[in-house]
Amino acid sequence: MAANKCSLAAADAPSITHVVFDMDGLLLDTEKLYGEVQENILARYNKTFEWSLKAKMMGMKAIEAARLFVEETGLNGLLSPEEFLVEREDMLRTMFPACELMPGASRLIQHLHANGIPICVATSSHTRHFQLKTQKHGELFSLMHHIVRGDDPEVKQGKPSPDVFLVAAKRFEGGPVDPKKILVFEDAPAGVLAAKNAGMSAIMVPDPRLDSSYHETADQVISSLLDFNPSEWGLPPFDKPAS
């Protein structure tokens, strides 16, 4: 589909029965925190954090993203991936509890839950970070049927491998659910690829700075969760337009 595809012909949409959400940058506004911390670390070495590198790191497991970060910024021999993660962790631990929901996240989750659509989260975040990030939003995340995190023993490989989404499909009631009936919401290129590799449909809600070439893998691209039209995917329509 075209990179600027933001609506879907009803005849093209598969019959969706279950929905899976990524978390960072999709439900929670955390990606800017990662960027801020990584910029601070690089500044010590008189280097800058390029958006193109951030796009590659998004959605990856922490250690995989750390290896990429060290390699692409030329920090080999100066900072190990493990040292980078320790330093980043110290800064993020105080920042995560204050993170806010992305626009439209609460509205969409509550709508799907109220209409009996099974929903879950499949995130690369490990449990410790997940707990910090969701401190203020426990009530909303309690509406999820289940949550699969990056340190789940069944998730052998991080995105773009399909592991996290296949595990998510397996844990729905009566699972595994047919991937063709699952709609995934993602903001990261690696996450969209993971969903497609799992045989699922993927809606991308990208950061506006992300190069549009990354849009092409997604089945649909929207600028915000507020722009999602459930009817296009055979899901119950919203009672009223987004305010």
UniProtKB/TrEMBL annotation:
Assigned EC number: 3.1.3.21
Pfam families referenced in this protein's UniProt entry, alphabetically: Hydrolase
One Gene Ontology biological process: glycerol biosynthetic process
Cofactor dependency: Mg(2+)
UniProt keyword annotation of Lipid biosynthesis present: no
GO molecular function term, any single one: sn-glycerol 3-phosphatase activity
Key words, A-Z: Hydrolase, Magnesium, Metal-binding
Catalytic activity of the protein: sn-glycerol 3-phosphate + H2O = glycerol + phosphate; sn-glycerol 1-phosphate + H2O = glycerol + phosphate
Similarity field: Belongs to the HAD-like hydrolase superfamily. DOG/GPP family.
UniProt name for this protein: glycerol-1-phosphatase
Organism: Erythranthe guttata
